Amino acid sequence: MNARTRSLGGWAAVLAAALICALGGWSYAQARGDDDLAYAKTRDAVLAAGKHHLARLNSLDGKDAVSVDAGLRQWLAVSTGPLHDQLARTRSKDASELRKSGSTARGTVTDAALTALDERTGTAELIATVDIEVTPRTGNAGTERKRFEATLARTADGWKVKALDAIPVGAA
Q1: pLDDT, tens digit (0-9, with 9 covering 90-100), for 111-147
Q2: 26-59 residues labelled b (16+ CB within 10 A) or e (exposed)
Q3: Would you kindly state where each structural domain of the chain is located, as residue ranges?
Q4: Which CATH class is domain 33-167?
Q5: What are phi and psi for residue 13, nearest 5 degrees?
Q6: Which single residue of 52, 54, 83, 172 could bond 79 by disulfide (Cβ 3.0 to 4.6 Å)?
Q7: Contact 50, 126 (CB under 8 A)
């Protein structure tokens, strides 16, 4: 191989590398502005918020008045709309009953999925299975498995639960 052939081979390699870099940059720019990617990020954020909020709404420490009040404040913090209004309306009655029982509940979302997401209106529908470990003041602890359907709404503070319905076992 002579010097001229080596020089041409070197330039060809540089040109090929530049072309590959340009194509990679173009592909990245296309993906970054992709509406599907933005939708997927929103979907993941709504699902994470919904799972967190359902766990909160199924958890409460009833050992003393301070813990009960803190738990009820958390319920209000993760809810909005009609659910928030209902929780606020029944708060004093709920607090009294929870203090009397002294039970503690810890909800863990074991599975969840969004069944609908409308970014334009700021609403989402979620279904979830929640294991709730209940520890009464006296007696043995037990775990209940419940299924829920929740409606979430986008607020200035992020996504919150607007409606929450229990789905009976065996319901289609």
Answers
A1: 999 999 999 999 999 999 999 999 998 888 999 999 9
A2: eeeeeeeeeeeeeeeebeeebbebbbebbbbbbb
A3: 1-32, 33-167
A4: alpha beta
A5: -65, -40
A6: 83
A7: yes
